[in-house]
Description:
mainly alpha
Amino acid sequence: MVSVPYLDKADLGPLANAAASWKALPAKYESLQREFEQRVINHLKGHWEGDAAEAAFATMGKARTEYENAATEAERIAKLLLDAHSEFAASQKQLHTLLDEARTDNYKVYDDGRVEDIDPRQDSPTASGTPGLAEERKQKLDSLVSRLTHILEVATAADEATHAALQRDANGDSQSFNTSVYTSLDAVEADQASALMNKKGRLTDAEITKLNLLLSAN
Length: 218
């Protein structure tokens, strides 16, 4: 589970920069592809024939396809990283709002996710003379705990989905470009939940926890 201090202090700048870098790659690959066609393939066409030429042109055709696949993979990874950044930034903003609210209302949020009511009125001699104060404070405490849990669950699901998506090799060949990279965390989480729900046999405790996390986050 993503922790309170981790999400609170996480620097999302590098993730945004990575997304921007990947977003710029497709145009560079497309430029390389055009240059390869003009300077190599088109230059040789009509000037080279025979078995060796046919084999060479076939190889060059595969190289051209790899440029296309590289551009596609880069574009999809950029979309995935942008979505991840959006998810993390939203969760972080929600956490900051909750922490500010808790401080203002005299609740303490601990690093381990616990929330404590530290309102000095609770211990004052006049506390018993304020009807409904204890119940009101408890309801607020329960609300903060529930919201905090959900924020951390969403951030954790996003973190794990990003990790899984970037490790995925859908084409089964880690030496080739992957044109089936996920482009959104929702798609990753949906596939993860579906795989767990459709698994034959009994789920392990860890798998049940994972499924509950995915369902809660979405």
